[in-house]
């Protein structure tokens, strides 16, 4: 088994590679990490190659002799790169994959941006049958296009494809910083822009957390997954015959409820909260299919997600750096 991992230096790539190399079930597996802006240290079972998947020659060379692909490389809101990397890059990888004599399974990590997550109202749980509906911006559009291209290659050429659709992926102290009113906020919303400047400074100093309200003025529910659970889902799908040509929602059993977050942090850490009205919509991704077909179960619930983020002590050698482009 030779597994090509794109986006290998990102949070999911690093976790997946470490988990696979430590898993006795895959003791004979080797990894080829395709790196672009950053590189990983190589080892006996880890080969590192450099280049951009937007280059067809790079994609062809990276696929040589590969049995499995775990495709993680993506772009955020970088319109100048997103079509080359996310769409053309995926196309070149799939073209090389379908022509390969050794290729067995192609796994794409999709995202809930492709179904609009909290930008649109959903009348029921978000299942794998929920239609695509990108919110404004190039990133969400690219996630729709990824899933459609993958699905159509499976239909056109009968190749073995799997899509694992993940919501916002957390690791280390990420979740703590999603709730920061300071300049160190991770992702969005950028809370300090939604309150008066003086209040934002005070909230940041006191550790006050936002209690985000949805369009119906109820605490918003939003989906997350911890990187450990996503890595375990990739391992579960790697050679599982029940995963062929399937799409799976990979997420926590219940969405994060901002009201429950505020209550738990008040009870366990004495932190205050402040209501933040919004036009966003609560939603609930249903992970039943993954649990049934992959025999997979997320290990992180709300309390573990919060506790692990607040208890994490970041070493000086690992500063908070969020890599988005490329």
Describe this structure in words.
35% of the residues lie in helices and 17% in strands. It has ten helices and 13 strands. The strands form four sheets. Strands 3-2-1-4-5-6-11 form a seven-stranded parallel sheet, with helices on both faces. The protein has helices spanning 11-22, 56-63, 79-99, 138-157, 174-178, 197-206, 227-237, 258-269, 288-293, 302-311; strands spanning 2-6, 30-35, 46-50, 68-71, 105-111, 161-166, 168-170, 209-212, 221-222, 224-226, 246-249, 256-257, 273-276. The protein folds into two domains: 2-171 and 223-255 and 283-299, NAD(P)-binding Rossmann-like Domain (Rossmann fold), CATH 3.40.50.720; 174-220 and 256-276, no CATH class. By secondary structure, it is α/β, with parallel strands linked by helices. The mean pLDDT is 94. Helix 3 (79-99) links the parallel strand 4 (68-71) and strand 5 (105-111).
């Amino acid at each position: 088994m030779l597994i090509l991992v794109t986006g290998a230096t990102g949070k999911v790539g690093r976790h997946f590679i470490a988990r696979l190399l430590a898993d006795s079930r895959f003791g004979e597996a080797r990894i080829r990490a395709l790196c672009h802006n950053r590189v990983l240290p190589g080892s006996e079972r880890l080969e590192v190659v450099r280049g951009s998947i937007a280059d067809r020659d790079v994609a062809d060379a990276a696929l040589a002799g590969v049995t499995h692909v775990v495709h993680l490389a993506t772009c955020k809101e970088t319109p100048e790169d997103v079509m080359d990397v996310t769409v053309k890059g995926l196309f070149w990888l799939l073209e090389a994959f379908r022509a390969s004599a050794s290729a067995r399974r192609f796994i794409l990590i999709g995202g809930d941006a492709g179904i609009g997550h909290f930008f649109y109202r959903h009348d029921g749980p978000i299942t794998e049958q929920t239609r695509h509906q990108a919110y404004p911006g190039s990133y969400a559009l690219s996630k729709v296009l990824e899933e459609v291209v993958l699905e159509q290659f499976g239909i056109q050429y009968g190749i073995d494809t799997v899509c694992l659709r993940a919501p916002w992926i957390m690791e280390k102290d990420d979740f703590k910083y999603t709730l920061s009113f300071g300049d160190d906020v991770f992702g969005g919303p950028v809370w300090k822009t939604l309150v008066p400047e003086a209040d934002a400074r005070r909230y940041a100093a006191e550790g006050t957390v936002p209690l985000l309200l949805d369009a119906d003025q109820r605490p918003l529910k939003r989906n997350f997954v911890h990187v450990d659970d996503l890595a375990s889902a990739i391992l579960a799908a790697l050679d599982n015959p029940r995963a062929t040509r399937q799409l799976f929602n990979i997420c926590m059993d219940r969405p994060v409820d901002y009201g429950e977050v505020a209550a738990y942090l008040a009870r366990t850490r004495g932190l205050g909260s402040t209501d933040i009205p919004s036009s966003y919509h609560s939603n609930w991704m249903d992970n039943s299919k993954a649990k049934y077909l992959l025999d997979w179960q997320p290990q992180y619930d709300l309390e573990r997600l919060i506790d692990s983020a607040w208890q994490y002590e970041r070493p000086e050698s690992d500063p908070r750096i969020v890599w988005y482009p490329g």
